């Protein structure tokens, strides 16, 4: 059936039926009534398929009769099928309800097939297979298919319908004729396309074809040349691999050929399209809708193939480089090589084509699959037929992604014996249960949940049961007596109790086919018709497996794995965490590390945050007034240069410890950058030539040649001495240009950051007698964070004064993932922070009420709303932090330190957030519900939005925010919160483990063997289960276990107990030093399981040095940082949360229940040394112990002495350097501390008296100012104490630790 395509690509089928299903009217835009009637004949189950269509021009139903399709109420799996009589290209579909009734379909699946037996579900580009149907019987709902269907049969499977009516459906199909030249390969055949000359050399190739395969292996295309070029397209493990070599001698003689792999599950017996486009070394490789762009290796740009190209296999090996593979078994259609229709030439028997045993029609195998849909309730039961040979034999094939599931269970004649065949931990396991307590097991295979088809057979013969998997050796279990099987349960057990059938863990979720019992194939059509066995939650004639890792939604090179219903991302080693490896675990700059309380050292920074660039390691120098970020390169030593000329210059290229993209991001995110160039010369000029041609130069980050030296303005051939007017010869602008026999120096600092760093240096005048140069390019040094500061004293902020005002920016590029964070302060009860709209999709963040922040969006699954409610009003004119994130896996919302709210995304919902309008900040496109107040530091996917620049040109908005807390980024540190006051500000350190006016002073305590601090929570608490009644039913809201802890310690004792957290349910966390001094972290989350124990490194930390530990747990994963040089990730065996936390203890612990011997031993030994800045979630136990004497929350045992771990560590280092080793420096901590403190106090008093004597007159004149300062200091002290006590009272509330420390630093 070939219809001529109209511009809209429409063929319409109109079939009108009366109330009894009788034919009233048939119409078509291209065919006769008789032909159309054949499209609507009885299906294989003899159910009348009644299709009713409407006039396209009027979009109204026909009025000549009533009708539509409705199944019988007893039909367990209703569907409506269309036979288009030939393969057509379908581009769109539309539906209506049944005419004149209350019957319609509100959601359905669309399946297609060439044969009417093996079906495949149609899915959109983002994997969605569900179509939205009708909401009444009359309106027409159109769906344009994102990729067309080329098929003969279509099947509509209703999922939901009018709850007050029944299923009712009329459909219309849009499309056009599809022309196809097809050939069939039987696994031994091939097509050879022979060239007119000996070899063919091309710089451009375009190869396209469509195929469907019956096997997971096979060569589709191969060609090679004598010089080593080759091209091979091969199906391997259900994926397509493209091998391509253009004159690369390394690959020519290499046994390991590098392939570009694309696609998945391509052995599903359905058509897949392939397109290979090559121009020189650039290649575009497309399989279905997925494209990979890559460049070939080697020096060549042309592909040289000798004699021929083979399709469908490699006929004969023997040529140099040829490797033998399995031939292709399946069909290929529309095969084009550089515009030549190869199959058409073969059909016309052209001489350049050799067709080896191929046919020009596609034979269709009778392989029918069945999908087990549910991991809890799917099953298929069959009666075991008697075998003439005795015993029983079962064979079938399966494919799945799940690592666990019951494949087969049967009760044996000798009760209570039974056999179970299951997938367990990705292996195939056969279990013979001889009694309730006894069993025998054998296992075979590895990763049988890889999505490929696996063949398994189970048979009993004599006194043995044999299991065989694929080509693996058989595994057997010996029996004591002959056995006969009872009923066979495939895939699972019924929900009603059946003797001898119990799901061991999960039911099977996957596909089965070719089931045979005692050598008798099982016709599943009989099962579907109720004439054989029983079943539940099955889908017949289709395998519904879907690769959720194609494309890979794990960001930053995260590894994707999957189950049947979802996918997972392994972020190990990436530097990122989160459901899709989106969030960087590192700070964006050295400035951010300083704000978090770190000191100088090597750190990993991520300049673009959650952006595409990865982290890089730099040195952060925090000893000066400015925080310098230092990036080194491969040539930091001085280098002497001789013998170079302008024609053959000396060239040195610099490779930095960061990639060029990372360097660009680092420089762009810094306020200022510089690089020192040390250059000494003797008879070696820089610019002194007659025509002005430079003799030496350097190359900037963009590859541009630069001829200015030593910090001078860009584009000027001068050096620093010219700017400073101290050149040794004032006739020249550089000292080296004086061309003297003595050494001269043109050292300077390059500080024009847009040109930095130096990527290459070229020196061209050292070839004369006694001519030489000596140079050194220093590391790149940058300071400041332009993401936070527009200038040195102002945050990137904007103030909104009118409800109708807003700032607009380009559309958010956040289809798959987005994270947004900012600070706000306001006195208004509500207002929209930001909004971006699409045709239907949207994303919005707003203050919906004085104490509620709402994050809402719609990606096509219906609106989703996340809300966080604060216990105090948020319109208190104080800064509050908001972070919202949305990915294809989940969405989350964080406000200040309130419990994180998150929702899991639906496994089969829409994924892409499609926006097309501008991003509105501080308001909406409708100019309603605008925000009144200040917003600062708006960051989207790691990029800070420049609010101030846009605010300068927008009415009703001004740049910056009034108030002290917005004027500096360094007022409060270490999670301290800046609180605005009428005449100043105060740092609220109640959320910090540090103290002091700026939350920078250590809170340290020296412990002896009997000392301990126990913080008792007033009431049991756990991480809050957040519920949102407004959330879309497509999303599942969950809680996720989280803990944050950080502390510093110094000791020489081992074993030692550092910290324990225990619950009322006998769970515990313990951080100890083992007997050898190594750090151990114990997590015991299940009473009936062994605890998880992690030992980060074997070296001892009981070395008398100060060590900093940071631990963050998120669900199953633990992120651990030790000091500054070790960042580790561990996986727990459970995601369980701590239920009803009882207490936190530091130092000696006795009376621990249900703990391991090592933990109990360390607890009895206590801790001797210094503990500092201890934080667990929002609890600071050391601070509570020092500031809340007599509080019922804190219990202190033994002697505690307030100390300073940092001073003690420095003292211990000096002590060890002076040769006084072997002592325990913390034994007499109180005495040493007293001496130190006494000396410090004496010095301070002396300096103070001198200052008072000198400045008495000045202070007298400013007595009022002194009085004000005194009042401010008293107010600060009062607020500090009351804030901490208030926070202590809040500890009964649920705690969440979803954010990293620096996120709570508000200024």
Helices and strands in order:
Blueprint: E1 13-17, E2 23-28, H1 33-38, E3 54-55, E4 60-61, E5 80-96, E6 105-113, E7 120-121, E8 130-132, E9 141-161, E10 170-177, E11 182-186, E12 190-202, E13 204-213, E14 218-224, E15 230-236, E16 239-245, H2 249-252, E17 259-262, E18 272-279, E19 282-287, E20 290-295, E21 303-311, E22 329-337, E23 340-341, H3 342-347, E24 353-356, E25 369-372, E26 379-382, E27 393-399, E28 405-412, E29 418-424, E30 427-433, E31 439-444, E32 454-461, E33 464-469, E34 475-478, E35 485-490, E36 510-517, E37 520-521, H4 524-528, E38 534-536, E39 538-540, E40 559-562, E41 567-570, E42 576-577, E43 583-584, H5 590-595, E44 601-605, E45 616-621, E46 628-631, E47 639-641, E48 650-653, H6 660-668, E49 672-682, E50 696-699, E51 705-706, H7 720-724, E52 744-745, E53 748-750, E54 760-763, E55 772-777, E56 780-783, E57 797-800, E58 807-809, E59 818-825, E60 831-837, E61 842-849, E62 852-858, E63 864-869, E64 880-886, E65 890-895, E66 901-904, E67 919-921, E68 933-940, E69 943-944, H8 947-951, E70 957-959, E71 977-981, E72 984-988, ...
Antiparallel strand pairs: 1-2, 3-4, 5-9, 5-10, 6-7, 6-8, 6-9, 11-22, 12-21, 12-24, 13-18, 13-22, 14-15, 14-21, 15-16, 16-17, 18-19, 19-20, 22-23, 25-36, 25-39, 26-35, 26-38, 27-32, 27-36, 28-29, 28-35, 29-30, 30-31, 32-33, 33-34, 36-37, 40-41, 42-43, 44-45, 45-46, 46-56, 47-55, 48-54, 49-52, ...
Domain F5/8 type C: 69-176
Pfam family, one: F5_F8_type_C
Protein name: Contactin associated protein-like 5a
């Amino acid at each position: 059936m070939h219809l001529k395509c109209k511009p809209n690509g429409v063929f319409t089928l109109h079939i009108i039926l009366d109330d009894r299903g009788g034919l009233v009217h048939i119409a078509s835009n291209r065919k006769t009534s008789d032909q159309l009637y054949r499209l609507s004949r009885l299906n294989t189950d003899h159910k009348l398929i009644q299709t009713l269509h409407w006039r396209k021009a009027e979009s109204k139903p026909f009025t000549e009769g009533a009708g539509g399709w409705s199944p019988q109420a007893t039909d367990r799996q209703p569907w409506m099928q269309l036979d288009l009589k030939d393969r057509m290209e379908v581009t769109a579909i539309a539906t209506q309800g049944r005419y004149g009734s209350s019957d319609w379909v509100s959601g359905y699946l669309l399946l297609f097939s060439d044969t009417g037996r093996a079906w495949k579900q149609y899915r959109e580009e983002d994997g969605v297979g569900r179509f939205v149907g009708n909401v009444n019987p009359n309106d027409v709902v159109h769906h344009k298919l994102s990729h067309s269907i080329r098929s003969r049969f279509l099947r509509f499977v209703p999922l939901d319908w009018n709850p007050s009516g029944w299923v009712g459906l009329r459909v219309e199909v849009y499309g056009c004729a599809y022309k196809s030249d097809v050939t069939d390969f039987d696994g031994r055949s091939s097509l050879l396309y022979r060239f007119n000359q000996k070899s063919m050399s091309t710089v451009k190739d375009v190869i396209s074809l469509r195929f469907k395969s019956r096997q997971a292996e096979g060569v589709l295309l191969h060609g090679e040349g004598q010089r080593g070029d080759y091209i091979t397209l091969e199906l391997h493990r259900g994926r397509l691999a493209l091998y391509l070599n253009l004159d690369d001698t390394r690959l020519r003689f290499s046994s390991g050929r590098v392939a570009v792999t694309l696609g998945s599950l391509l052995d599903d017996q359905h058509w897949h399209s392939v397109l290979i486009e090559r121009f020189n070394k650039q290649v575009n490789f497309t399989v279905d809708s997925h494209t990979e762009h890559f460049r070939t290796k080697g020096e060549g740009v042309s592909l040289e193939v000798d004699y021929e190209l083979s399709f469908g296999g490699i006929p004969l090996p023997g040529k140099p480089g040829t490797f033998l593979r399995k031939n292709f078994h399946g069909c290929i259609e529309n095969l084009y090589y550089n515009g030549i229709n190869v199959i058409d030439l073969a059909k016309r028997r052209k001489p350049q084509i050799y067709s080896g045993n191929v046919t020009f029609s596609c034979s269709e195998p009778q392989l029918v699959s069945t999908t087990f849909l549910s991991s809890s309730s799917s099953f298929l039961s069959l009666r075991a037929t008697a075998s003439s040979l005795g015993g029983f034999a079962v064979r079938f094939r399966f494919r799945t992604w799940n690592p666990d599931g019951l494949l087969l269970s049967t009760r044996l004649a000798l009760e209570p014996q039974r056999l179970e065949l299951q997938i367990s931990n990705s292996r195939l396991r056969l279990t013979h249960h001889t009694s309730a307590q006894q069993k025998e097991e054998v296992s075979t295979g590895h990763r049988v949940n890889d999505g490929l088809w696996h063949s398994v057979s189970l048979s009993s013969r004599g006194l043995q049961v044999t299991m065989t998997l694929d080509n693996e050796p058989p595994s057997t279990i010996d029996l004591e007596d002959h056995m006969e099987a009872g009923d066979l349960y495939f895939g699972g057990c019924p929900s009603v109790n059946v003797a001898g059938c119990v799901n061991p863990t999960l039911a099977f979720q996957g596909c089965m086919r070719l089931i045979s019992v005692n050598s008798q194939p099982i016709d599943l059509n009989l099962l579907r018709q109720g004439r054989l066995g029983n079943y539940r939650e099955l889908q017949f004639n289709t395998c519904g497996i879907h690769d959720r890792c194609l494309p890979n939604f794990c960001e930053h090179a995260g590894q994707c794995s999957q189950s049947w219903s979802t996918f997972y991302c392994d972020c190990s080693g990436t530097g990122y965490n989160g459901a899709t490896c989106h969030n960087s675990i590192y700070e964006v700059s050295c400035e951010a590390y300083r704000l978090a309380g770190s000191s100088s050292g090597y750190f990993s920074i991520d300049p673009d945050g959650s952006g595409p660039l990865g982290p890089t390691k730099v040195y952060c120098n925090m000893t000066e007034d400015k925080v310098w970020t230092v990036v080194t390169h491969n040539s930091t030593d001085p280098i002497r240069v001789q013998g170079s000329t302008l024609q053959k210059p000396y060239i040195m290229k610099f490779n930095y410890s960061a990639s060029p993209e990372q360097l660009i991001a680092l420089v762009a995110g810094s306020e200022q950058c510089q690089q020192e160039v040390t250059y000494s010369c003797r008879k070696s000029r820089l610019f002194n030539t007659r025509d002005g041609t430079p003799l030496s130069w350097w190359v900037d980050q963009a590859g541009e040649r630069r001829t200015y030296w030593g910090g001078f303005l860009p584009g000027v051939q001068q050096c620093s001495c010219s700017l400073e007017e101290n050149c040794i010869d004032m006739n020249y602008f550089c000292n080296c240009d004086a061309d003297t026999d003595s050494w001269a120096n043109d050292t300077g600092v390059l500080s024009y950051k847009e040109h930095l760093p130096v990527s290459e240096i070229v020196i061209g005048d050292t070839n004369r007698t006694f001519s030489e140069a000596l140079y050194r390019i220093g590391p790149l040094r940058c300071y400041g964070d332009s993401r936070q500061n527009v200038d040195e004293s102002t945050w990137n902020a904007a103030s909104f004064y009118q409800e109708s005002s807003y700032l607009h920016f380009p559309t958010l590029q956040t289809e798959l993932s987005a994270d947004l964070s900012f600070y706000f302060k306001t006195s208004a009860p509500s207002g929209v922070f930001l909004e971006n709209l699409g045709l239907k999709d949207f994303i919005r963040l707003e203050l919906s009420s004085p104490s509620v922040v709402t994050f809402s969006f719609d990606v096509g699954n219906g609106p989703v709303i996340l809300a966080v409610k604060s216990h105090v009003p948020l319109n208190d004119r104080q800064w509050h932090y908001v972070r919202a994130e949305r990915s294809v896996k989940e969405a989350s919302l964080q406000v200040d330190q309130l419990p994180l709210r998150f929702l899991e995304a639906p496994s089969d919902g829409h994924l892409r957030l499609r926006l097309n309008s501008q991003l509105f900040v501080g308001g909406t496109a409708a100019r309603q519900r605008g925000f009144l107040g200040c917003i600062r530091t708006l960051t989207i996917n790691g990029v800070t939005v420049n609010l101030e620049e846009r605010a300068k040109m927008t009415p009703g908005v001004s740049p910056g925010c009034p108030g002290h807390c917005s004027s500096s980024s360094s007022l409060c540190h270490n999670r301290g919160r800046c609180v605005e006051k009428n005449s100043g500000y105060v740092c609220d350190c109640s959320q910090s483990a540090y103290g002091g006016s700026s939350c920078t002073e250590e809170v340290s305590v020296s412990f002896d063997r009997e000392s301990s601090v126990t913080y008792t929570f007033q009431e049991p608490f756990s991480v809050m289960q957040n519920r949102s009644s407004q959330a879309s039913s497509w999303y599942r809201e969950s809680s996720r276990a989280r803990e944050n802890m950080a502390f510093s310690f110094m000791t020489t004792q081992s074993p030692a107990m550092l910290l324990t957290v225990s619950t009322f349910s006998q769970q515990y966390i313990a951080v100890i030093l083992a007997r050898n001094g190594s750090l151990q972290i114990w997590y015991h989350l299940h009473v009936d399981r062994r605890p998880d124990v992690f030992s980060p490194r074997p070296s001892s930390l009981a070395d008398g040095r100060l060590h900093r530990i940071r631990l963050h747990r998120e669900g199953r994963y633990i992120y651990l940082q030790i000091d500054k040089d070790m960042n580790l990730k561990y996986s727990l065996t459970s995601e369980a949360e701590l239920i009803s936390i009882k207490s936190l203890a530091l130092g000696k612990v006795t009376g621990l229940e249900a703990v391991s011997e090592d933990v109990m031993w360390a607890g009895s030994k206590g801790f001797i040394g210094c503990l500092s800045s201890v934080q667990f979630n929002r609890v600071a136990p050391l601070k509570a112990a020092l500031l809340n004497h007599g509080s019922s929350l804190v219990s202190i045992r033994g002697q505690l002495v307030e100390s300073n771990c940092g001073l003690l560590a420095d003292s211990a280092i000096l002590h060890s350097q002076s040769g006084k080793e072997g002592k325990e420096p913390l034994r007499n901590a109180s005495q040493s501390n007293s001496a130190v403190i006494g000396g410090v106090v004496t010095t301070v008093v002396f300096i103070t008296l001198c200052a008072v004597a000198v400045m008495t007159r000045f202070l007298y004149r400013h007595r009022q100012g002194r009085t004000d300062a005194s009042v401010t200091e008293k107010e600060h002290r009062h607020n500090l104490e009351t804030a901490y006590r208030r926070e202590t009272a809040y500890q009964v509330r649920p705690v969440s630790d979803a954010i990293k420390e620096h996120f709570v630093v508000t200024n």
